[in-house]
Amino acid sequence: RLLQQLSGWLVSDDLGGEDAGCGGPGLVWLHTEQYNLPRRCLRQFFAVRKCFVFPRPASTQNMRRMEELSEKELDSEFLEQANTFCHYVYNNAEPKTISGGRTITGTGVSLGNLAEVYIEAISSGNVPCLENAVVSLAKIQNVRAVERAMQFYMTEMLSIAPLPMRPEELSDIHKIAEKKAIEVFITMAFNDNDQMYHQELMVH
Questions:
Q1: What pTM was estimated for this model as a whole?
Q2: In what residue span(s) does the Guanylate-binding protein N-terminal domain sit (predicted)?
Q3: H helices of the chain, where?
Q4: How far apart are CA 165 and CA 175, in angstroms?
């Protein structure tokens, strides 16, 4: 394991991470309360924590061209720690969920989209709020769900409704296609609690 030296003591990754997280004994911080607040929040909302300390991935000269380096050019200790980190994530990380217990993954409701919205808020200088990110994600996902359902409906109608046909036959086919399109929407929709996007789909 990698070791750090803090206030004259050698500490492991986890202990070092905890110490850095809330200010170690004997360390004097300016604006201590402001500094420690986000760290206390991390402790409160993330009951299980695992800290990893990464050494420099390359020499000072190579650090200037990090994006061009191959894996063989990276520091062996960095690669070892990176592999340890990945192994821990793959074996211990649980599916991400939001309020209501809804799972967000790489398909359907996208964790990637949520991360993009969250990072955009940080980059713009706004205080990132996960709830706002979820609202933005819901809008993106539900607009996409409406579009996908409408496309499905049109494809279904064109494939099973050869013209000319009697009005009652067309009405029956419409009901079948509409039901399937609604199922497509429900599968993709996310946090449409007030059914605003569901109603939008029905209007179309």
A1: 0.49
A2: 32-97
A3: 13-22, 32-45, 60-63, 76-92, 111-123, 130-160, 167-188, 196-203
A4: 15
